[in-house]
Amino acid sequence: MKYVDEFRDPKLIRQAAEEIRRLARPGRHYRIMEVCGGHTHAIYRFGLEGLLPDNLELIHGPGCPVCVLPMGRTDDGLALAELPEVIFTAFGDVMRVPGTKGSPLEHKARGAAIRMVYSPLDALKLAEAHPDRHVVFFAIGFETTAPSTALTLLRARELGIRNFSVFCNHVTIIPAIRAILDSPGMRLDAFVGPGHVSTVIGCRPYEFIAQDYGKPIVVSGFEPLDILQSLVMILRQLAAGRAEVENQYARVVPWEGNLPALRALEEVFELRPYFEWRGLGFISQSALKLRDAFAEWDSERRYTVPGIRVTDPKAAQCGEVLKGVLKPPQCKLFGRECTPERPVGALMVSSEGACAAYYHYVHRAAAAASLER
Amino acid sequence: MCLAIPGRIVELAQDRPQLATVEVAGVRRQVNVDLLRDDPLGPGDWVLIHVGFAMSRISEAGAEEQMRMLAMLGEDEQAMQEIEGYRFGPET
Amino acid sequence: MRTVVEQAAATAGGRVRFRDARIEMAHGAGGKASRRLIEGLIVPLLRGQGGDGSQAGKLAEPLADAAYLDVDGTRLAMTADSFVVRPLRFPGGSIGELAVNGTVNDLAVSAARPLALLLTLVIEEGLATETLEAEVRAIAEAARRAGVEVVGGDTKVVEHGKADGMYITTAGVGRVDPRARCAASEVRAGDQVLVSGPIGDHGITILLARGEIELEAELRSDTRSVYPLVAGLLAAARDGVRWMRDPTRGGVATALNELARDSRLGIVLREEQIPVREPVRGACELLGLDPLHIANEGQFLAVVAPAQAAAALAAVRSVPGGEAAVIIGEVRAEPARTVLAAASYGGTRVVDMLVGDPLPRIC
Question: Which fold has domain C184-350?
């Protein structure tokens, strides 16, 4: 596969890993956060952590849009799914997320009309095909995915499809990064920046990290060589005492972002005054809602949702894992009461959740370390 | 947020300018290319696909440049070793 | 007067450990949830429930593809499988072919020569006769190709809406090669893991054939009888063949995890050796699926002693249809009960058993 296989070249991977080991100064402990859950997933899927020197610690960030959604919002969506005329649609990632009365899959098993879709456009098509039903699209994602929802809403309006609405849980990445930087006790040296969010927002929004907080941030692709190269670039900045925004993923990420995408976002969405994030608490201006012009396609205005705030079970440490304070195996429930089959929190079932990455790829890591190469 | 795959544009839909067929390792799929309307696409172009939308164009030159830099990582190391070899001092 | 249920409850030997209130799709997907249902509810209640005592204890053994019966000195293998697939027809085959090949393959990987099948049809009211006829012809043809005879069965019709067109069950019996000794307990560290050909074709074909995802690919189900390949393998390396399995639902990952669990050993796969056809890889990358979790209907896994591995591979490759067989890894003592995949650059990851249905990821 072009643009994939080259970036998995074993010889170049070994070379890049060598360079990282050479650059990481002994006696210094590096703490580098990869913001995006997709990077966490890639790091463990490709076994990259095992190639890094012991003094380079990867801290897993909150860039998992399903993980940061508080359980109450999932409950709200599922309350809509229980309405007889509603067909509830969402991406595969949402299907196993636990709500108070079970996940969407479990609701489906009990008879609710729940369908998985691969694109918001599929949800819109479903509405066209079922004029007697109302299709709700449970929208999640950062700025990577929000433009797709925006374009779908523009199309719904253009075609006059009225039996369709979006339950919007889109969140924005910058306030989350800022919240991490402002966390008391959080000591980070640098960031591996989100790759696909950046195709939309560009690299400029990260400048405050370098300028105001003095931390390097390298926007990174998702193949093994991308991630390793980004770490090389970070270590070089740290060695030289620089703090800059760099774009490792330049083959895909335009520095200025995607203008049509940003315009679509501007036309359809506005920022909520505040939104609750699992682990990070209430953050102002950090989530999107539909503008008044699109009220007709806003599930929260077409219907009334319970809007009950649900806190995580006391024993669950999802918030701390999301902030990077704990690694998944340090959560007392990891692998015991909380597994992908019986998840307590979304991090164990989201494909970008740190807990899921560890559980699937690293669960028996201690044993794997004894593997001879 | 993050699953996005490179695909090659195979054809643009004649009647629907916002749609194109892309191919990924022999698998074809129709995607919406509206987000790239400012920079018109043609067959043979590579794009990054996410939830049925083309998000960005992939630059062949950008990828080649990157591969060159990655290949040089090993060379840098060799160059460093050569330079270090000129220092006088105890052998390690 | 007790009802049958009350009576059964009173005599049931096993303790039910299955706690889910409801049965979900995941319980039929072949992964962890399926295993929990079978081991937690079905096996405990059925174990040691009757017969003349000659087959007592059979259900207690690690769950294999077939059950073994010793009848007057002859070892027979007996297996059953049900086929629930939508759509009924797909590129490369149909439910009828799956029904025959699935059971034939379960017998083959139990080192048994398939002899006869029983066929049960549960047909949905309203199904076109044309469709039924096509399936019965497909069954006849598949049976002919597999060298097995359909000797009996049953037919039922259920109300419209209750059978996705048609459900089929086949039960098969075969004669076990008396010199074969295949079981998880036979596997040793150093043994080599062989797969007969590329993986993931069937599952992805079905996913695309459903039409829910608008992907087009040149893909066909790999449904076929693997008996000729198994026969070739056994002829060349009989006492070196330690274990075999056909990786259907849950894929190669699930089958090897079951082996790792049952044998208490570890398995390390070489990532680059795992054979996957390009369109399967493309579809998996697009959907965020792992080919190791995808169902196969025409492949088998074998674990072979190192001294015979080369001969085993050559033997399978020399049978028509086995040309793409490849050694994909080996058994190790550590890490126990774990399946790992190692990349040539040194990266390692755990290959987990499938959890629930393989759901395409988007994010």
Answer: Phosphoribosyl-aminoimidazole Synthetase; Chain A, domain 2 (3.90.650)
Residue A85: which residues within 8 A CB-CB, separation 6 or more? A132, A133, A134
The ipTM value here is 0.91
The domain spans of chain C are 67-178, 184-350
Interchain contact, C362 vs B29, CB within 8 Å: no
Closest chain B CA to residue C286: B5
Q: How far apart are CA A9 and CA C171, in angstroms?
A: 47
Task: Give how far B57 is from chain A: nearest CA, Å.
Answer: 6
| Average pLDDT value for residue range C316-340 | 96
CA C49/CA C60 separation, integer angstroms? 12
C314 burial (CB, 10 Å; 0-12 / 13-18 / 19+) is middle
Measuring CA to CA, which residue among C23, C21, C67, C72 is closest to residue C47? C67
Whole-number Å distance between alpha carbons of C321 and C16: 44
Q: How far apart are CA B31 and CA B10, in angstroms?
A: 11
pLDDT tens profile C71-101: 998 999 999 989 888 889 999 999 999 999 9
The CA-based angle A237-A239-A244, given to 5 degrees, is: 20
Chains contacting C (3+ CB pairs below 8 angstroms): A, B
Query: Could you give the 3-state DSSP secondary structure of residue A327?
Result: coil
Prediction pTM value: 0.89
Question: What is the C-alpha separation between A353 and A37, in angstroms, rounded?
Answer: 6
- Peptide linkage before C44 cis (omega within 30 of 0): no
**Under 8 Å between Cβ of A188 and A32:** yes
Name C43's Cβ contacts closer than 8 Å, sequence gap at least 6. C14, C59, C63
Closest CA to A248 of A198, A173, A207: A198
Interface touch B51/A145, C-beta < 8 Å: yes
Shortest Cα distance, chain B CAs vs residue A314, angstroms: 28
The helix, strand and coil proportions of chain C, stated in percent and rounded to the nearest 5, come to: 35, 25, 40
Total residues found in chain B within this entry: 92
Q: What residues have CB less than 8 Å from A311, skipping those under 6 apart? A: A70, A71
Q: What is the dihedral of CA C349, C350, C354, C360, to 10 degrees?
A: -20
Interface test with C, best of A351, A359, A363 (most C CBs within 10 A): A351
| Domains identified in chain B and CATH numbers | 5-58 (2.30.30.140)
Of A177, A226, A189, nearest to A62 by C-alpha is A177
Amino acid making up residue A328: P
- Taking contacts as CB-CB distances below 8 angstroms, the residues of chain B near A148 are 32, 50-53
> CA B46, B49, B54 angle in degrees (round to 5)?
75
Q: Supply the CATH classification number for the domain C67-178.
A: 3.30.1330.10
Whether A47 and C266 lie within 8 Å, measured CB to CB: no
How far from A315 is each of A69, A312, A356, B77, CA to CA, in Å? 18, 8, 18, 49
Which chains, if any, share at least 3 CB pairs under 8 A with chain A? B, C
Q: Tell me the two tokens of residue A217.
A: 């941030």
Q: Coil, helix or strand for A199?
A: helix
Task: Tell me the backbone φ, ψ of residue A75, rounded to 5 degrees.
Answer: -60, -45
Inter-chain CB pairs, B–C, below 8 Å: 39
Q: Which of A78, A127, A41 is nearest to B1 (CA)?
A: A41
Q: What average pLDDT is seen over chain B?
A: 83
Tell me the β-bridge partners of C118: C152, C171
pLDDT band for C55, please (50, 70, 90 cuts).
low
Domains in chain A, start-ordered, CATH in brackets? 71-173+257-302 (3.40.50.11740)
